[in-house]
Hints:
Radius of gyration: 21 Å
CATH architecture: Alpha-Beta Barrel
Shape: globular
Strand content: 5-15%
Order of helices and strands: HHEHHHEEHHEHHHEHHEHEHEHEH
Largest sheet: 7 strands, parallel
Number of strands: 9
CATH class: Alpha Beta
Number of domains: 1
Number of helices: 16
Helix content: 40-55%
Oligomer: single chain
Amino acid sequence: MPVGPEDYTAPRSGEPEPARCPTGFPKLQNDTFLRAARGEKTDYTPVWCMRQAGRYLPGEQGPIGCSTSACWECGYGIRLPPSRCAAESAGLRLRGISRARNGPILSAQASSCFVSAPPAPSVSQTPCPSPSPLLAEFRETRAAQDFFATCRSPETCCELTLQALGMEVVMVPGKGPSFPTPLAEVEDLLKLRQKVDVAVELGYVFQAITLTRHKLGGKVPLIGFSGAPWTLMSYMVEGGGSNTMAKAKAWLYRHPEASHRLLALLRDVIVDYLVGQVAAGAQALQLFESHAGHLGPEQFEEFALPYIQAIAKQVKGKLQAGALPVVPMIIFAKDAHYALEQLAESGYEVVGLDWTLRPQEARARTGQHITLQGNLDPCALYAPKEKIGELVQRMLEGFGPQRYIANLGHGLYPDMSPEHVGAFVAAVHTHSRQLNKPS
């Protein structure tokens, strides 16, 4: 039986939660994605889309027009705890794409990308430059751990603070994650806890994964994910998104030792977080180094790659030690073309690609011993459906029929048509079956 909110009792503050490895999940009916990730032969190319959560399906977008893939999606205002909302949201995405293309999609996404940094002791916060009128209400709700009340208000939910972060993060409509008090000085690292029990801080996320796995009914695999250390550090220093990441990069040059301390702290929490997702029911994991392109080759090799490699090694080691499934892992380092060969040797079964690299070149540089994922330009989904089909066919021919997972080169945008997303998925299945036919 699925674990419901009524079966879950949050641990008392400071009390570690016993490990829970749910059993009795529905049998997986479609393992094409998992087989492709492991390099096994498939009859067609599996496909999924990044940023499915709350991005383009009207039913997931809140009445104020905001949506986010960095928190559990509760934007359609049902009166449920976040974990239950996440399960309902996954079902909505699955139904939405199924209607669009008259068939099942490949995978569902556990939508909690930025839940990866350690929490700080309670400190006074500087008001956000553009504070939401609901922020005070939200903070009170969060302090009381009354997630039921938080989800009751879609506007408040869009500012849901991710419990494992060492500082407050709010979701600003039209802007994304925003930190009211970013890390400004090296001394600010002292505000972060050095040890974090993710089961205590993120129990509701793990509960949501378990509920979602049951909700999917075995129709598709469930992918868990996290931001990578450099990407999370850049948010923590910049206070939000940035075109240049100049403040975060300045830390790397001015404070290299402190930067490594922060990155190592993030690495350790991310490892436990990803292991916890598998224990809760995730069947694959993706690590997003979304801001890799802001680093040059030398900076990437010093401040990003070692932590990417360590996460893969440590996650797999802890999964084995805990008698948990050693699930396939995907690394997506956007715009890090200069490190493609290193990423292919970094311990992940799959390397995700953005749309600025030709499939043939990526395959030539990585060989036939790694699965590649990507890499259609997301904006191609604005094209007519016939053109989408042509672009998909060209992409599939470039990558080849095996050791390949189709995806976009980045995430879906909120104004994208579900019908065009469905056309993309259908084209992948149709053309890949043709490519896999015996000659």
